[in-house]
Amino acid sequence: MRYLPVEEAECHVVTLTNPGVVAEGIRADGTGVTHLGMRGNRDLGAVPRLVRVIRAGGFDLVHTHLYRACVYGRIAARLAGVPAVVATEHSLGDSQIEGRPLSAGTRALYRVTERMGAGTAAVSATVAQRLRDWGVAEDRIRLVPNGIEPARFRHDPAVRAAVRERLGLSPADYAVAGVGRLVPAKRFDLLVRAAAANPGTFLLLAGTGPERGNLLRLAADLGAADRVAVMSSEDGGPDVPGVLAAADLFVSPSPEEAFGLAVVEALAAGLPVLYAACPAIEDLPPCDAPGASRVGGDPGKLAAAIGRQRRAGPVRLAVPAAVEHYHIAHTADRVLALYASALASARKK
């Protein structure tokens, strides 16, 4: 939202549940945030509460994100009489969406409510194809890739030294980073096993989620508890740019991704990258991200790839073309174009 011109778009955010640090950051930037206090997926009382918020705001357009918000948000926006509704699909995988199996019921509810809006933005060409496979009409899909602020991740040797000292790493220690929600689908257990199989290699996991305890127990069982650290800025740990600055290699072990934002952030930090799946990179020519290599999700193959990178020695790479391709300013331009199209269509009705 920082890149949406205020003279063209005055924004307000509604979070259904768990606003957390993201909401705090949005408020700090001067955008209002309303927490709806939704108690669960079947809290149908959230619909009239959301309708009241939307009506009170007098909004010209509602933009929904993620499965539950898309379902509830589209319905509420329609009931509130909002002229234009769009959605962004961030997380549709081949077998699940945000941890939900792709059942017939999940698909049916998605498709019925999808028709209540002007269209859906797919964050990657891979997601666009998955939407088509789900039966969403081609003319209702727009490609609007995710974006990052490259300057936020630019490598800073001083930050590297400070974070490594804070984490107890010596200048000679080799550190591998992983970033993301600590949930089973991300398969950080594979990364813990691969790091444990490389003596002297340290693993820095940045994220929160229900798998945190399991990952730490796994590290202990493998005799690598002193080489695996799980941290989050929410808990007072280094932020993601700091973790990337401290690392020598980035690994994304998730076999199913909708985009792969953390991979792009790691490339912006000048890190070599190993990934199991990353549409953000796979949708571009190989020359746009020469520092990124695909590796199988098998722990043995991943461990071997980490070992090869470590033997090659730490290196900071030039920021590749992929990073500029996914600059958040380009994303903002595409979002504004999507809004303009949706509003123009609404005026014709």
From TrEMBL:
Q: What keywords tag this UniProt record?
A: Glycosyltransferase, Transferase
Q: Name one Pfam family in it.
A: Glyco_transf_4
One GO BP:
carbohydrate derivative biosynthetic process
Q: Where is the Glycosyltransferase subfamily 4-like N-terminal domain?
A: 2-152
Q: Where is the Glycosyl transferase family domain?
A: 164-282
State the Gene Ontology terms under molecular function.
hexosyltransferase activity
Please report the name of this protein according to its UniProt entry. Answer: Glycosyltransferase involved in cell wall bisynthesis
Species source reads Actinacidiphila paucisporea
According to the entry, what is the taxonomic lineage of the organism?
A: Bacteria, Bacillati, Actinomycetota, Actinomycetes, Kitasatosporales
